């Protein structure tokens, strides 16, 4: 038996993706064999599949950093045939065959049972983007953020993580300011729950290390100059959850916001954290962090359409989330 898969290859000079029929016995490794229902497309997937970023660690490798499906075989007592599961993180699609395959085998420790009432499609409309947004909000609240503390900024707000974060925060009662470089996205972001939408500030020379404090907290998916601006404009004892670098990985700032205002810069890595917290966040995304208008934030493509969307991600033309229908293809 073979599995239709989108495999990333390299000849040592270039990296590319192509379709392949891979023996199921050769797809991944671990205690669980999953019959894939859905996957998703993230910026990291586009970097990996096109070779635009050094994401893939070994070749050939099946792409896709998210997967949801049904357990077909299990040698772990925690899971039985027929269980619905979701897997994100743990180098899936980077160092281990990922979700762009009709079948995938993974370690049981990576899998989370699909929460009751959540569909496989919804889990991939959330995917890595959702678990990242949920982890960011969890860490902000762990460090004292509450709706009555003041406004919360979300950068890259029209993207996958940003749009989910806007909806999650608004649903929790926060006053959300969406920061975006897309002028035509303002109405959509207000529809998701943003009380204010502002244009991405332009970088300028000679800025002071501290500006007027505006934010009780922030979710930053951009990095670079935009993160430096957030650091300068966050209120006393405020926190910033940072996980993106599309705006650059260098950070031009000073210690003054940290020592004079006591702000917290929280690094968010949704690939590796405790299994207990991962399960709890998936439950929260089915409860108090369940995004409103999820069916408007995400759209679905067929498996064969997958290669067409990677260039759009890299060109910054995508909004929201892309779910990939893998099953029955």
pLDDT < 50 runs, ≥5 residues: none
Report the mean per-residue pLDDT as an integer.
Answer: 95
Rg to the nearest angstrom? 20 Å
Largest sheet: 7 strands, mixed
Output the structural class: alpha/beta
Order of helices and strands: EEEHEEEEEHEHEHEEHEHEHHEHE
Describe the 3D structure:
The chain is an alpha/beta fold. The chain is 27% helix and 28% strand. It is built from nine helices and 16 strands. Strands 3, 5, 6, 7, 8, 15 and 16 form a seven-stranded mixed β-sheet that branches. The chain has a six-stranded parallel β-sheet with strand order 11-10-9-12-13-14, sandwiched between helices. Strands 2-1-4 form a three-stranded antiparallel β-sheet. It is globular, with a radius of gyration of 20 Å. The mean pLDDT is 95.
Write the layout of secondary structure elements.
Layout lengths: L1 E9 L4 E9 L8 E10 L1 H8 L10 E2 L3 E9 L9 E5 L14 E4 L5 E2 L6 H23 L9 E4 L4 H12 L4 E5 L5 H7 L3 E4 L15 E6 L3 H10 E9 L13 H5 L3 E4 L7 H10 L9 H4 E5 L3 H9 L6 E5 L4
